[in-house]
Amino acid sequence: MDQVKIGKFIAKCRKQNNLTQMQLAEKLNITDRAVSKWENGRAMPDSSIMLELCDVLKITVNDLLSGEVVVMDNYNEKLENNLLEMVKQKEQADKRLLTMEIVIGILSALIFFTLIFVAAFLEMADWVRVLLIILGFIPFIVGMGFALKIEQTAGYYECKECGHRYVPTYSSVLWAMHVNRTRYMKCPKCHKRSWQKKVLTKD
């Protein structure tokens, strides 16, 4: 999808409805800065407010994602292309997130082990040693929490038994036995436990 084209289309529709950026933002309970980012092509409207935005601008979601009013002759074709593009963009975003997960994990572990090593092998007062250990644990715990959240939300887990792909709850990912990104979890569809692999696509 062309963000710049979509941004210009949002601006055009807003003006056609005699709305300022501030007025549109107030109707959507967001900031006018967010509207400005859309119209300048620097960001896309969040999916949670896309329907409301289209309702205010008197357009369809298909129009919005196409960056133009779609005529009926090629409506289905445009809709299919937009859906495919959204799936592709989600896959790319998930790949970036999973790469970020690795970076966060490595940095957190590096800080943790460096401070533990310093506390264990260098001469220092006991209170400094304890402080270093605590300072090592804090970024490690926070970093692992962020990494696990990414692990949970980016992509899907595929049940080995029935092939169902789904996004598990945070707690089920947290407590599941795992080897890298394969986790032993209960499928919400067939209710069987199996080693489930991380995949990027829904189908």
Question: Quick summary of this structure?
Answer:
Helices cover 63% and strands 10% of the residues.
Give your account of this protein's structure.
- The chain is α+β, with helices and mostly antiparallel strands.
- It folds into three domains: 3-70, lambda repressor-like DNA-binding domains (434 Repressor (Amino-terminal Domain)); 91-152; 156-199, no CATH class.
- It contains eight helices and five strands; from the N terminus they run H-H-H-H-H-H-H-E-E-H-E-E-E.
- The protein has helices at residues 3-16, 21-28, 32-39, 47-57, 61-66, 75-121, 126-153, 170-175, and strands spanning 156-158, 165-166, 177-179, 182-186, 193-199.
- It has a five-stranded antiparallel beta sheet with strand order 2-1-5-4-3.
- Strand 4 (182-186) and strand 5 (193-199) form a beta hairpin.
- The longest helix is centred in the middle third of the chain and has 47 residues, at 75-121.
- It starts with a helix and ends with a strand.
- 20% of the residues are buried.
- The mean pLDDT is 89.
Radius of gyration: 23 Å
Second rung of CATH, namely the architecture of the largest domain:
Orthogonal Bundle
Largest sheet: spatial strand order: 2-1-5-4-3
Beginning-to-end CA distance, first to last residue: 21 Å
Contiguous helical run count: 8
Structural class of the helices, strands and pairings? alpha+beta
The arrangement of helices and strands along the chain is HHHHHHHEEHEEE
* Highest CATH level, the class of the largest domain: Mainly Alpha
CATH superfamily of the largest domain: lambda repressor-like DNA-binding domains
Helix percent reads: 55-70%
Number of domains: 3
